[in-house]
């Protein structure tokens, strides 16, 4: 297993490099860019430009050395060419695309992600600022989904075909069919001062006077703010894990070793949790790391917008819309690296849960 881990670790830089190349090329081919937004704002033609410059040369908005892709701007016919050339230099677009890419990757190798084009903050500071929101939504949503879906899936497997099984199947399928943002709006209408009750807040993770509260009050205030957005996020997450748990247990329950265990006089509970549980939970437990990181970094942007939660999802969306390339590529590199490491952790978890699974022998 050690040799397998070493090989996987050596493959991570190669895989990550490929991910960055593909995304870099796509962004290179996409129309528009930060220089276009700056010039459109100066010409008064920008619809919703978030670009800003501190002076005639671009000022603080152009401070970064990890600039991504964008060719020379051709459309600002009314502006001096020298001014456009200065903007390109300050944004880093005066160099060939391949040179910009390798410079960017060299910086990223030392975890130097540069600064945002449009904010006076580094990419790392921006991510750290938004991280508490994403952690709050991701961790609690994942835990609730697992804590509900696993017992429910086990109960459904034990009572397969019963009225309980059919009813709960319809419930989780309906929940899965309802879009999270639509359910969020429904929760607001019902419980957040819409047309009925006014029980929950609509903005932020904490109240404005949170720092004045005692610790028990802070915890309750935190839960109070998270209740509706987490509920909206988990409603569609029960179906997949519940059915996976049910099918995994059903597959194990019908195997010969279970029949043998029952023939020896073991109770259903002893068979279920003493023999079936470990084998059936293999896929579920091993998939937990990737499920958690999925919730953390690819949470619902609409949920964050609806409940005024400024997290990583909203940051990524705004970066794409505004062509904030340092934020786009910096977060892509960091989260891609985390995802690759978590895939390796998932494989290791498989081996820990069931030592019979040996990826090294399979590769051989």
Give your account of this protein's structure.
Helices cover 68% and strands 0% of the residues. It is built from 17 helices and no strands. The chain has helices spanning 2-29, 34-43, 81-91, 97-109, 123-158, 163-177, 180-191, 215-234, 238-253, 256-263, 268-280, 282-286, 288-297, 301-306, 312-322, 325-353, 359-363. It is globular and about 90 Å long.
The total count of strands amounts to: 0
| Secondary-structure-derived class | mainly alpha
Largest sheet: none
What Rg is obtained from the alpha carbons, in whole angstroms? 26 Å
Strand content: under 5%
Helix and strand succession?
Answer: HHHHHHHHHHHHHHHHH
Mean pLDDT across residues: 78
* First and last CA, distance: 12 Å
Stretches with pLDDT under 50, minimum 5 residues: 47-76
Quickly count the helices: 17
Helix content: 55-70%
Query: Which descriptor suits the 3D outline?
Result: globular
Would you kindly provide a brief summary of this structure?
With 364 residues, the chain is mainly alpha-helical.
Primary descriptors:
364 residues, 68% helix, mainly alpha
Explain the layout of strands and helices:
Layout: H1 2-29, H2 34-43, H3 81-91, H4 97-109, H5 123-158, H6 163-177, H7 180-191, H8 215-234, H9 238-253, H10 256-263, H11 268-280, H12 282-286, H13 288-297, H14 301-306, H15 312-322, H16 325-353, H17 359-363
Helix pairs in contact: 1-16, 5-8, 5-9, 5-13, 6-9, 7-8, 9-11, 10-11, 13-16, 15-16
